[in-house]
Amino acid sequence: MEELTEVPEVDRSSEDARGHGNGNIRKEEEGKGDESSRREPPGRKRLFITFSVVLCFLLGVPFWWKSTEVYRAPLPFSAIEEHARYLNSSAFALPCHLHIIFASAPSHTRGGFVTGSSLEKVAESFRQHAGDVDFGVRVTLDAEDSCVSVGREDGGEYWRCGLAKSGLHDVVDLHDDDRLDEFLWSFSKDQNSSTGGRYTVVVIGREGSDVGSQSGMHQNAHVNGRTVVGKHRHAWMTGVDLSHPGFEDGIASRIADVAMTYFKNGGRASKTGRDEEDQVASMPLSADGEAVLSFSLLNANPEDWIFDWDIEEVEERYLQPLIEVMEPVARLSIESQVLYYTPKAVSSHWDEALKAHLVPFKQLPFFVNSNEWHLDTSSAATGRSKLLNFAIYVPAANECPLHMQLSSGRISPTNGFTSPGWGGVIVHNLPGCENLLPNKSENYRLTSKELEPLVGVIVSQIRALFGLPPTFVKNSKAGIYGVPAAVTGIADWEVDVLLRRRATMDINASASTLLSLSRLVSSLPNMVIKDEIGEQVQSSLAQAKAAQSQSLVGAYHAAAEAARKARSQAEAAFFQPSIMSMLYFPAEHQLAIYTPFFVPVLLHVLVALLKEGSRYKKEWQKYKRWHMRQAT
Amino acid sequence: MADWGGWLFGFVLLCVLLGVVDGESSLRSEDFVESLVVRPLPDGKVLGHFEFVNELGGGREGAHGRHHKLFPKAIFQIVQKFRIQEMELSFTQGRWDHRLWGGLEGLESADVKPGGVELWAQFRPSNEDVDMLWRNLTHALSGLFCASINFLEDPAMVSKWGGARQNGDMGAVRHGALPREAVCTENLTPWLKLLPCRDRAGLSTLLERPRIHNSNYYSLRVHVKAGNGIDRPKGSLRLSQTLTVVLKSSDTSAAVRGGSVRNENRRPNWSLSSLFGQSLAGSCPLASSSHVYLELEANLVEELKRAENQMLSGSEDAHEDALNAPAEDLVANSNAIFDLNLAPKGVSKRVSGSASGSSLFLNYDVQKWSGDHPLDVGMTWRAFLAWSPSQGPFRATQFLTGRGNGRGAIVSLVNANRDGCNGMRLCPVSESDDGSPAIDVTTFQIVPWYVRLYMHTLKVVVDGERVLLKKGVRLKLSPAEDRKSPAVLEIGVTIPRNTSMLFVSVEFDKGYLRIDEHPPDANRGFDIPSALFTFASAAAGGNSVSKLGLDSSLRRVQICSDNLLVLLATPDFSMPYNVITFTMTALALYFGSLLNSLRLRSVTEVRSQQPASRISTKLQKLLARFRGREKVKTQ
C-alpha cells in the first residue's frame, strides 16, 4: 500500500522537476536578450562529460600515433652532419713523406760541400717551395764514411744509410736510367721500406771528373743536371753541382717541383685544389671499387674480312701486370668478345692527299654506334660494377684505311679516342687494305705481336680514363725524365696518386651519400627504415673514421680500404631496396582510411564542446550578474 | 734401360704435347650452323622452322668465361653464373593446330610449345641454393629477353621436377610457365642479338617483324645444354635457337592452272619472298654451314606418287619404270602436281615422326647464293592434292568441367587419331590387334595451389574401362602448399595401341585468394599452364616393337594441350573501402547519439516527446500497480 501511495509522489516530483527544467531550458533557449538571472552557479556535470570525451580522444591520440607509426631504425643524423662538416672544413688527404738523400762520394764531405747545416737549409727551403701541401721531409747525407739525418723520424720507414757504401758510384753507370732504377729498387727492397706515400729523391753528387762530359751530354740541363723519376717510388738527380755555396735553395726548389708535380699529382703540373677534385670525381669505378674492362673486337663488315684475335695471350702478357699493380686502387677484371656487323655511326670522307678515309674531329662523339654495337653490360659483373668498354674497330673494305683527324687537322697517331667514363675506341686498319680487293669473308687473326701497338694505346687509354696523363710527361726543359713502367704500364708512384684520389673520392662520396640519405629520411616520415640501413650507416661512418685515423698514421692501404668500405656501405644503405618501395607510400591512403571515422565523430565532439562551453559561460555570467545584484 | 727411359720420356712428352695441342684446338672450337626447314602444310599454310646452333667446344673454363668469339657472351655468363646444366626458354604465340598441321616431331629439337613463356632449367650439382639460383636466373633472363620472366621467381608457380624432360637426376630442376605472357617484338630483338650475324645476314634476314607476328603460330626458343662429360665433353656448351612459324603465303596469283579445281580448294603458291617478304641474299659469313630444306611430308609424297601413277596409268603409254620411279626423282623432276622454281642440290630421305613413309628433304645450300642471285625457294601448284598431316597415333586435349565458382574438374582426353587417316596404309593403328605393343602415356601438369585438387577423385578410364589407380597407374605427385608451391602431378598409364580413348579426370575446389594476390584483371580468370602429354613405346616390349617396322618410327612424342582458364570468385575490389566507410559511419552515428544522450538532460527528452512520455508514465503506473499487487500478494 505504501508503494501505491508513493506513485503520485513520484509523479509530482517528476512533474516538479519538469517544471523546473522547463523554466531553465526555456530561459536558455529563448533568451539571448533574456536578462533573467540565476541564483546558483551553473552545474558542471555536462561540461564534465564533454571534457571527459575530449580527454579520451586526446589520450587516444598517442596510442593511435604509435600504432600507425612505421618502423624507423635510429640513424645517427648528427654524426652524419658532423662527418660531412668535418670533411668540408678539412679535406681528407693521405699524407706523403719525402726522403732526400745526398749520396755522395766521400770526397764531397771532406771538401765540406754538404754539411749538417746545409741539410737543414734544404729541408727548410723545400717546405717553403712545397707550400701548403704537407710533405713530411727528411734529409739525409749518406756518405761512405758518415751518415747524418735531419727532419722527421719515423722509425724504419725511411731508407737507411749505406747507399753510398753499397757501391752506387762504382757499380752502376749513372747514365743508364733503367739499371740505376733497378739498383735503387733493389736497395729499397732490401730495407723493406717501399710503402705507399713514401718517396725518395736521391741526389747523386757530381764527381769532379764527370763535370765536363756530363755538361757536354746534356746541354739544356747544364746548370741543373738531370732528374729522373723511376718506376717505383724514387727519383734521382745526377750531375748536380754541390760545390758552390748556397746550392741548397736551388736544389730544394727542384726537388719540390718533382715531388709536387709527379709524386703528388701524378705528372700533371700542380694545379689548384679545385681542379684536382674534378679529376677525382671522374674515376670510373663502381661504389665498391670494381670495374670490368670489356674488350670488343668489332668487325664492321664480316663480308669483307673477319678478324679474330689472341686476346688470351694479350691478357696474360700485357694486361695481367697492369691489373695486379692496380689491385690496391681498383679490382679490375677482363672479358672480351668479337662482334660482327658493327658499322660506325658517322660517315667518313676520302682524303686524296692522305690516301685515307677520315673521320673529322667534330664527328668523333658520334662514332660509337649504340644501335649496332651490342657491348652488353655483363651479367658476370657483380653488384654495381662499372663497365669500361674498349672497342677495337676493324673498318669495312670500303672505308679502309680509316683514320681519325685531330682538331688540328692532322691524323691521330694513336687512331683512337677515349670517352670519359665509357671507355675507348681504337681503329685497326688491315695493313695495305687500300690495295686489297675485299676477299669474301677471309679470315685474319691478330696475333699478340700485331696487337702490341694497340695494347699500348689501350694502356694509355686506361691511364687517361683513370686520370693519369696518357704517357709519362717528359719535361726536358727542366731536365726531368722518366723511366717508363714498361711491364705494368703504371708506375708505383702513379698507383699511389690514384690510391690517394680514390680514397679522397670515396670518403667524400660516402659523406655526401650519407648526407643525402639523412635528408631523404628526414623528409619522408612515412618511410620504413630497416635495421640494416641503420647498421650500414653506422658501419660506413665507422669506416670513414677508421680511414681518417689510418691516414694520420700513414697506412695507405688500410686507409684506402676503409674508405672504399665506407663508400660501398653508404651506397648500399642508400640503394637499399626497401627504401625504394616505401617512397611511394601515399598519404591519401591514410586519409581515406581515417576520415570516415574521425570526421563524423569529431564533429559531434567539437560541436558539443563548443555548445557546452558557450552555455556554461553564459550561465556563469547570469549567476555573476545575480550575485552582483545581491551584493549591491 | 736408358733407351727405355728415353722412350718413355718421349712418350710422356708426346702425350703432354698432344694434350696441349688438343686443349688448344678445343679451346677455339666454336661453330655456328644455321638452317631453315620449310614445310608446306596440308591446309595451304607453310611452316618455317629456323634453327641456329652455336657450339662451344670443351676446354678451360676460366679462359672461356672471359673471351668470346661466336658464342654470345650474355648466355655464357648466365650459364656460368647460375650453374646451368640445361635450360630451355620458349616464347610462343598462337595455337598449334594438331589436326590440321600434324605433329612437329619430324623436325629435330622442335616441340610444340604452349602459349606464353615456358622456362625450365636443370642446375649443375653444387652447394649453392638452387632456389636462389633460379630466382636470379629468372631475373637475368627477364632482363635479357625483355619479358616478365621474373614473375617465375615465386616458388608458388614453379615445379621442382621437370617431368619427362628431366634427364636422370643430374641436378635440381625448376620448371615454370607464364601462360599469359604476351610475346612480341621486344622478345625477338634480344633473341636475334644472340646470333653472331643478328638480322644483318643469313637466314635471320627473313625474319621480318610484322610478318612473323601476324603468323598463325610462332614459337621462339632458346635451348642451352652444357656438356656433362658423358655424351659431350665437360665445359662444352650448345646453344640452339629455334624459331617456328606458320605463315600464309601472300601470293594471291591464280594458284591452280587449268581451272579444273574449285576455287576454295586451291592451294596458294608460295615462295620465300611471298612468305617472308624477301628472298634470301646469302648466308651469314660466320656460319660453317647454311641450308634451306624443303620438307615434303611422307603423306604428301605418298599421295604424290599415287596421283602420278594414276595419271600415268590413265594415259596410253604407261611405263613400268615410271610407275616405280623413286619419289626423289618425282619431286626433283617436274611432276603433274607442282613445280619447284629451283632444283635442289640434293634430296635426302628422313624417316620422320610416326608416319609410315619417309619424308623428303630437298636441300639448298645458301652459301652458294648471294645478293646478286638471291635464293627464293618456292612451289607452284599445278593440281590440287590433298594429304593428311603426319600425325602421331594420338591427339590430346584438356578442358575444364563444372560451373559456378565452387568446384570443377580437369579432364584430359587422349583420342586415337583414327578418323584423321583415310588411307589404310597410313593409319597408325595396326589391324592386327593381338599382340600389338603397348604405349606409355604420361601427362605432366603444374596446377597452381588455388586450384585445390582432390586426388581421391582421380579417375583414369581406358576405352570405357576404369583403371585401378593402385594397379595400372604410375602416379607421381607433389601436393600443393598454399602460397608456397603448386601441385605437380605426373600420371602415367600404359595403354594398348588400339585404344581409342583415354580419359583422365581429377576434381578440384576453387580456392580463395587474398585481395592483394589478384592480378589487375582478375575477372578474366586464372590460367593453368598446359599439360604435357608424352607418348612412348612401352619399355618392356621395346624389341618386339621394332620388328613390326611400323612402330620403330614412334619415338617419344610430346604434345602440349592448350592452357586452361579457371574462373575464381573475384571480390569486389572496392569492398575494403566500402566496408571501412560503412562501419565507420555506423560507429560515428552511434557515438554521436551516445554523446548527445550523455550531454543533454533526460528531462528535455521527456518533455520533447510528449506522447511517448504519456505512454511511458502509463507504463510506469502499470508497473507500479503490478509491483504493488505483487507486494500485496506477498504480504
TrEMBL record, chain A:
Protein name as catalogued = GPI transamidase component PIG-S
Q: Which domain of life is it from?
A: Eukaryota
Keyword Glycoprotein among UniProt keywords: yes
UniProt keyword terms in alphabetical order: Endoplasmic reticulum, Glycoprotein, GPI-anchor biosynthesis, Membrane, Transmembrane, Transmembrane helix
Q: In which pathway does it act?
A: Glycolipid biosynthesis; glycosylphosphatidylinositol-anchor biosynthesis
User: Could you tell me which residues belong to the region Disordered?
Assistant: 1-41
Where is the protein localized?
Answer: Endoplasmic reticulum membrane
Basic and acidic residues: bias regions: 9-41
Task: Cite a single GO BP annotation.
Answer: attachment of GPI anchor to protein
Q: Name one GO cellular component term.
A: GPI-anchor transamidase complex
Q: Which family does it belong to?
A: Belongs to the PIGS family.
TrEMBL record, chain B:
Residues annotated as signal peptide: 1-23
Spell out where the chain crosses the membrane: 577-598
Give the keywords, sorted.
Answer: Membrane, Signal, Transmembrane, Transmembrane helix
Under InterPro entries, the record lists: PIG-T
Record bears the keyword Nucleotide-binding = no
Gene Ontology biological process: attachment of GPI anchor to protein
Extract one GO cellular component term from the record: GPI-anchor transamidase complex
UniProt-recorded name of the protein = GPI transamidase component PIG-T
Native organism is Ceratodon purpureus
